[in-house]
Write a structure and sequence with these properties.
It is a single chain. The protein is mostly helical and 178 residues long. It is 57% helix and 11% strand. It has 9 helices and 3 strands. It has a 3-stranded antiparallel beta sheet with strand order 1-3-2, covered by helices on one side. Helix 2 crosses helix 7. The two termini are 18 Å apart.
């Protein structure tokens, strides 16, 4: 995730009624004090997936609200991961309220899954799909590791057991990865 930060959205909230409406609605629907967590932290709480997912979504929709308040409307939208839900809201396919509910459930489910089976993720840059596969197989004695997302050619996110990812991080640079 890593795009969240303490203070996120506070400037939008101060500058835009539409952004305020989005953050206020998020607080009402999610019931987790999202506005306070985004604006004031603590950072550890904001890093919890159950908070980060709604925080990133809410910030994105607050930006959209601010832009729309200035007469700027997208012709085309798309999103990656939680951004897909934001794109559905921006396109008018689902309501902001439903988007907040979905993202709230998604964040809680992702948090529970991570706690139920602790793991780790790492982005690897500069290796082909074939070399990524070979790298994952080479660390199988340390733990399960597999591609979780092919972001673009040359950038793959791996997920798996902590020991396996740690081994990947040790071995990948010797194979030309970043």
């Amino acid at each position: 995730q890593a795009s969240q930060y303490v203070g996120m959205g506070q400037d939008l909230y101060a500058a835009s009624e539409a952004a305020r409406d989005v953050f206020d609605l998020a607080d009402e629907i999610l019931g987790i004090g999202l506005k306070l967590l985004c604006f004031s932290g603590p950072e550890a709480a904001l890093k919890r997936t159950s908070v980060t997912q709604p925080a990133v979504f809410t910030h994105s929709l607050a930006v959209l609200g601010m832009l729309e308040g200035k007469g700027i409307r997208p012709d085309i939208v798309s999103g990656h991961s939680v951004g897909e839900i934001g794109a559905l809201v921006a396109a008018g396919v689902i309501s902001l309220e439903d988007g907040l509910r979905v993202v709230g459930i998604r964040g809680k489910a992702m948090q529970a899954a991570g706690e139920g089976r602790p793991g780790k993720m790492a982005a690897v840059f500069g290796l082909s799909e074939k070399k990524i596969g070979e790298l994952c197989e080479s660390v199988c004695d340390a733990g399960v590791v597999s591609p979780a997302n092919y972001n673009c050619p040359g950038q793959v996110v791996l997920s798996g057991d902590r020991a396996g990812i740690d081994r990947i991080l040790e071995e990948a640079p010797a194979r030309g990865a970043k």
